[in-house]
Amino acid sequence: MSALYVLIAISLIVAVAFLLAFIWSFKEGQYEDDYTPSIRMLLEDQPNENKKK
Amino acid sequence: MENSVSVDQDIQVKTAPKEASHHSGGNIEYFAYDNKIVSMFAYATIAWGLVGMLVGLLAALQLVFPVLNMDTAQTTFGRIRPLHTNAVIFAFVGNGIFTGVYYSLQRLCKTRMYSDVLSRINFWGWQLIILSAAITLPLGFTTGKEYAELEWPIDIAITIMWVVFGWNMFGTLIKRRERHLYVAIWFYIATFVTVAVLHIVNSFEIPVTFMKSYSWYAGVQDALVQWWYGHNAVAFFLTTPYLGLMYYFIPKAANRPVFSYRLSIIHFWALIFLYIWAGPHHLLYTALPEWAQSLGTVFSIMLLAPSWGGMINGLLTLRGAWDKVRESVVLKFMVVAITAYGMATFEGPMLSLKNVNAIGHFTDWIIAHVHVGALGWNGFLTFGMLYWLFPKLYNRDLYSQKAANFHFWIGSMGILFYAIPLYWAGFTQSLMWKEFTQDGFLKYPNFLETVTELRYMYMLRGLGGAMYLTGVIVMTWNLIKTAKAGKLTENESAQAPALVKEEKAHQGEHWHRWIERRPIQLMIGSLVMILIGGIIEMVPTFMVESNVPTIASVKPYTPLELHGRDLYVREGCYTCHSQMVRPFRSETERYGEYSKAGEFVYDHPFQWGSKRTGPDLARIGGKYPDSWHYNHMDDPGAMSPGSIMPRYPWLLDDDLDTSTTATKIRAMMTLGVPYPEGFDLVANKDIEKQSEKIAKSLKESGIETASNKEIIALIAYLQRVGTDIKASHKPVKETK
Are B46 and B103 in contact (CB under 8 A)? Predict the structure, then answer.
């Protein structure tokens, strides 16, 4: 039974950690744009051969 | 009101310059992606997939043809089954995760992995862990906890490798050239953090010898920790990393953006928050406190929402592009994978309802359920990813589209042939267990009847597994042909502008000003503080006064019984037998008094089991004479014709190793088992006395055996199980 309290405590800590991560990511501006990221990941960044020379 | 308006304005003012500076990046930088490491993990995925599924097929066939156990310890079902689960989860899916993460993380961060050395250590270390598992599990080194069977030295190695993986991943994140973290990366991060927590907490064990340990927790506690771990292994090893892969590879394969990026954000946060609580649904109607069961049920049902949110997001990514699915075998695999995910995550919450669980638990329904997830979701997403990756890595088209299509169809049919017979078997057996005659007696009092009934379903399941495996073999051939015809670009050159450090919008401002303007965040912050304080104060208070109702008549195992119990763990008896009588009339009639929390306080680890391929053993003690157990372990088929239980002849031949008795007793004393002081030194004397008694009783039944054989210890344990409360509580049967 005592493990129950340990686990609830750990579950809460994990949950709170995710909450803090959420707040942090919000603050960092991860949600300012919820459209371009989904497009950006489709674009590959092939090196521009001309520039490289 | 006025306050909220000013908050809005503040956000607008602050974000404006940020947007502007978003892409006014630095100089263009040239670098190369590490494709070599991706290909290494991809080959490991394929190889271990073949091994894990082959072992699974063997296990499936052993249930139809017990002769396939080969009367050898190392190839017996109880050891083969953990080998199968560990191989497909940690070797096949594990390498699949690394393949996908190492490929996508580099591209999403526009940088090479942080360290090539760490990448290689991650690869070879993980393969060594798998190899050590493949050797130790058949040899009988196991902790006896499902999906966490590996012994303590391997547990430590896993921890180290996981840290290496995390170090490499976060190093890559820090040196990234793209400020925004794509949603797939969030799933990878959550996977890393949570798996670390789960693994460490569940692996708390006290080493006894080099390859033997006892779980730190006992009975109810151990069960709870184990299924908190077990369920979240499903959540954070089989689900979140694969959702990350889904969010990367499906848009890539379809060349379309994900249906809703906003939905993916909600999906992520809701899913990770809810999953962690759902573990107790594996313990419904057991001796776990009722409120914990209810908590698990409630969270499991809520999980349906984010799970289906993710499924819908994945499927709708293909909106208006379904014609591509007709042509692309990659998308075919992925569509079936997401559909299987949707089915499994609908079924999961349903199975968490207590009334449904009462039917499904301990039956093949659960095996069908997990395989829809494993074969459909994990398997097919992996195959889709590999078919997409190989042509990319090797710069040529897939060797044979036809063969890939064949794989798709035989794999899909394999899933159906696997799952449908097992659903049927699960319902059949559960209904047979619960059926009473009009006079109030069990209609099928002989458990064996409910097993032999399933024979043909098990055969069909084996066929389904074989079809699925055939597909994987064809894929292996196809991918190797693809690789041979092309050439691996070990280092793929790329370019991206350097990431310029963002200018702070409110430079020089005191950090606390930020939160001061945000009442909601401030409230959350204070709540967190309160919770931390509360936890620190409450946990010790609760822990001092444990509230498992102790039962005075429950005593520690004798040293011989303890050895017997270790043999029970070693042989993996829990893979087929439960030790948990649920409080149903159909179960108390069949097995005896239902199980109480206080009965398991000395069980390190608990052995409640999760599947009844054979009958429950919680009340086996005293049910049969010693001689019955002796003959039954030698040849179950002789005692119960038609039984599918393997033979255990080596238990009759091998001597019990009593050199570890003292260490074992001392370890148990450390864990709080109340043996008298100095008992560890005289324990072997106690063993001699008890084993001679059993040998004598066997002799009376005409069985000549030395008293130092392993079978004696196992009989001692089996005769003890569940008898402690028989003295104080009369079994239901007798009070009738």
Answer: no
